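User: My instructor asked us to take a sequence, write out its structure as tokens, and then describe one feature of it. I'm not sure where to start. Here is the sequence I was given:
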Amino acid sequence: MRKHDSGPSRRPTHHASGSDSGSARHAGIKRVSGNKMTRGDSSSRSGNTSRGGPGRRGSLIFLLIPLVILIAGAAVFTRFYRQYKSNTFVEQSYVDSWDQLTDPNIPALTDSSGSAVTPPPEATPLPTPTDIPLEPPNLNDVDIKNDPIIRKEPIDPDIENILVIGIDGADIDNEGHRSDTMLIVSINRKTREARLVSVMRDIWTYFPNRHSWNKINASYAFGGPGQTVNILNEGFGLDIQEYIVMDFSGYKEVIDILGGVTIKLSADEAGKVPGISGAGTYTLTGEQALAYSRIRKIDSDFVRVQRQRNVLLALFKEMREKDPVTQYNLAVDALEFMRSNIPATDITGRFLSLAVQIDSSMDQMTIPGKGMYKVHDGATWYMSIKWEEQTEALHEFLYGG
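Assistant: Let's start with the prediction itself. The structure tokens for your sequence are:
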């Protein structure tokens, strides 16, 4: 960790003599008739153009440099492609409707006429403890249980929405196999702009395939990233078809390779991060950044989500400042802590495109928005939201802005 000094910094200066620079500019050049310029004497000229002379060697070196860079880049690209395809890519299945996903062993709730009904949260019995395992989530969960994704037609062909699911497999305080973070990255292919939507994990939502209500982040435990995509699409009328699952506990190694991430800490936050003595802007190590993202109880869940978002944005910022070969090497290291259904032929360019486009200046939104929810703090803490108004606001943000 190192703290950033906010005081003025001195910039080194370079001094050069005007006469010296002028003579250097014209050294070895003489003007001849017809306003033509020629270099030095004839012996120098013939020496530079002779077969095998220094001029030829210089030209060869000039041509070889980009060739070497191209070969190195191709090698890293191939390494990334192969590792992604063998270790990260998820063979995702798809269906056309909820009817193909509903568990026939779970009876639907009906009214007196026999029609299916959606009861309010207060009238829904709490799920039994056996519904969700108690241990933290793991990337291997994706390989074990992952529901098919219900196909959706694009709402706007120029806009692509990708769901980023964050889990923290090493956080013993995490509640069961639930996802910890849900971010919708929306990319406008036409304008090359990106927008970011954070979805609060405690939103109380309806699960059509289970005929019951639960917190929205329980979808990952019930059916992996496939069910999480389906629940978000169902609740908010979205068209998400692709996802990236990231295990934040592994990203501390990537952060250390980058040399740390720059984060501004409050006094309360600083007290929860090892090795930090007070409020300020710090370059955090991977371990410190992870501790910062796990902070709970000092403020609201909205702020906790913002902290996780801060680490992710800082990580992408550091990646953008690296050269292309280093970016690919870092991306290869990150693959160990990812799962995704984006095809390998697409991810090689699109993953780095995401890293370039995601920054703190992009338009951001949090669901639920101000005035769109009510907190319930009984036996289960959750947020009920105004679905119609919230969906309208979200669509305006993603498609209408």
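For the description part of your assignment, you could build on this observation: Confidence is low (pLDDT under 50) at residues 8-50, 126-130. Try explaining in your own words what that tells you about the chain.
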